[in-house]
From TrEMBL:
Keywords: ATP-binding, DNA-binding, Nucleotide-binding, Transcription, Transcription regulation. Residues 152-379 form the Sigma-54 factor interaction domain. The lineage of its organism: Bacteria, Pseudomonadati, Pseudomonadota, Gammaproteobacteria, Alteromonadales. The keyword Chaperone does not apply. SUPFAM superfamilies: Homeodomain-like, P-loop containing nucleoside triphosphate hydrolases. PROSITE patterns: SIGMA54_INTERACT_2, SIGMA54_INTERACT_3, SIGMA54_INTERACT_4. This is Sigma-54 dependent transcriptional regulator. Signal peptide: none annotated. It comes from Pseudoalteromonas qingdaonensis. Gene3D superfamilies: 1.10.8.60, Homeodomain-like (1.10.10.60), P-loop containing nucleotide triphosphate hydrolases (3.40.50.300).
Length: 456
């Protein structure tokens, strides 16, 4: 790693130079480019260290015949760990190198130059790449933060307490376990925590352990080396590794197989992962947020979840309330959804009966269901007033309280059955697509099919 021996000006921007060759170009004293400070890395480890210590948005890879594949591999790994870093290739040995790597060139590089360096042109290109990197970073932060900002907390005691807790835990780096029924906003809360945490500029990587097929999940989480198994025709960086310096959100952790629970426990204890078919370990520094809709203590009793893993992840536990437990937030939440979902140049409001029906309904699918019903109502309604029929829920019948309970349970199951059957039909009996349409995981979808006794 090069040492800086010139005085730093405010204009100077750090550029990582990945140089596995013996070429000595781009030394600070010889460049005459006052805006750029070149920091040389002659190995992948050294490059990682530089990225930890400096804010580099632009990187140059020196590409020569001798180390071509090693350089490409390093660029790929560094890009996976910091996707706001943009690359320029500097070719040492003429044009034919570009032919060799043209199949993947645009995956990693924005532009290329040749040696000897044309300084004026390099200055111009680096400025361009730096601007692109800033735009990319801004849009990435914008998307993550705007999603997290889209949470509507409501005014109930339950939701205000939740907000207080989220604000508190966001400042720590502790592992968090979020519980709550499907659709209560566990994923959104995880994003909210990340967006307020010291890791907010790092990646937020989500893995839905219930949605990935068992054959894929190991490699999705831990990655694999080329040739690790049939079909592994290139190296794959797993999602844990991609969360380096950021937050990893492991959703539906209760659906992870016992075998993978062991691997996960090892990772949590050692902070190292080993890609499938690999023979070296990679250190990953990330915060982990787990979410589950199943009661993990019951899962332990049923032999489906490891007790040691449970104690390792259960450091700070949060429970998101079901919508029926903060029903007084319905008017606020429903109007918030309506505002967000209304197309431009339209205006809708709820009839008094629609609000009454929403407050009386049991919301098995929680805020997700509320959002979906309002989305459907916007399409179905024939005026600018949304009624309870547009929402597909009816006002509760005025009967004695015991028959009310029976009615609600029956009604809930009827609505679930109706929504599931429609989604299955709409998607030509493709279960994954049907689950996607309802915005729930395949596991949840199968659970509902079983619960509603639907025969496929
Ligand atoms: N408090 C909230 N304010 C606004 N939107 C919300 C809120 N909670 C949930 N949502 C919306 O409801 C939908 C479901 O949220 P999310 O996926 O976070 O729920 P979940 O609990 O993780 O569900 P699952 O357990 O099925 O994965 C999303 O579209 C989300 O934007």
């Amino acid at each position: 790693m090069s040492k800086r021996n010139t005085t730093t000006t405010h204009m100077e921007r750090d550029v990582l130079v990945l140089n596995f060759t013996d070429e000595t170009c781009l030394n600070d004293s010889r460049t005459n480019l006052p805006n750029w400070h070149f920091i040389h890395a002659n190995s992948l480890d050294c490059a990682y260290k530089i990225l930890e210590q400096h804010s580099c948005y632009v990187a140059i890879a020196l590409v020569g015949h001798s180390h071509q594949q090693a350089v490409l591999k390093a660029v790929k790994q560094l890009s996976a760990s910091q996707d706001s870093l943009l690359w320029l290739a500097l070719f040492r040995d003429g044009d034919n190198l570009l032919d060799n790597i043209s199949y993947c060139f645009t995956d990693y590089f924005l532009d290329y130059h040749h040696l000897p360096v044309d300084w004026a042109r390099l200055d111009h290109t680096l400025g361009h790449i730096y601007g692109m990197a800033q735009l990319k970073l801004r849009s990435k932060l914008g998307t993550a933060a705007s999603k997290a900002n889209s949470i509507c907390f409501g005014e109930s005691k339950e939701m205000q307490q939740l907000k207080e807790t989220l604000d508190k835990v966001a400042c720590t780096d502790e592992t968090i376990l979020i519980g709550g029924e499907t659709g209560t906003g566990k994923g959104l809360c995880a994003q909210y925590i990340h967006s307020l945490s010291p890791r907010r500029n790092g990646p937020f990587i989500t893995v839905n352990c219930g949605a990935l097929p068992p054959t894929l999940i190991h490699s999705e989480l831990f990655g694999h080396e080329k040739g690790a198994f049939t079909g592994a025709n290139k190296q794959y960086i797993g999602r844990i590794e991609r969360a380096h310096k950021g937050t990893l959100f492991l959703d539906e952790i209760g659906d992870l197989s016992l075998e993978l629970q062991i691997n996960l426990l090892h990772f949590l204890e050692e902070n190292y992962i080993e890609r499938i078919g690999g023979n070296q370990t990679t250190e990953v520094d990330c915060r982990i947020i787990f979410a589950t809709h199943v009661n993990l203590e019951n899962a332990i009793e049923e032999g489906l979840f490891r007790e040691d893993l449970y104690y390792r992840i259960n450091i700070i536990q949060l429970e998101i309330p079901s919508l029926r437990n903060h029903i007084n937030d319905i008017p606020l939440l429903a109007n918030d959804c309506l505002t967000k979902l209304t197309p431009p140049n339209h205006q809708f409001s709820f009839s008094d009966q629609a609000l009454e029906a929403m407050e009386a309904y049991s919301w098995p699918g929680n805020i997700r269901e509320l959002k979906n019903r309002i989305q459907r109502a916007i399409i179905m309604c024939e005026s600018d007033i949304i009624t309870e029929q547009d929402l597909g829920i009816s006002l509760p019948k005025k009967t004695d309280s015991s028959s009310d309970v029976i009615d609600l349970v029956k009604h809930r199951s009827e609505i679930d059955t109706e929504l599931i059957l429609a989604a299955i039909r709409n998607n030509g009996y493709n279960i994954s697509a049907a689950a996607r349409e309802l915005n729930i995981s395949r596991t949840t979808f199968y659970r509902l099919i079983k619960k509603c006794k639907i025969k496929l």
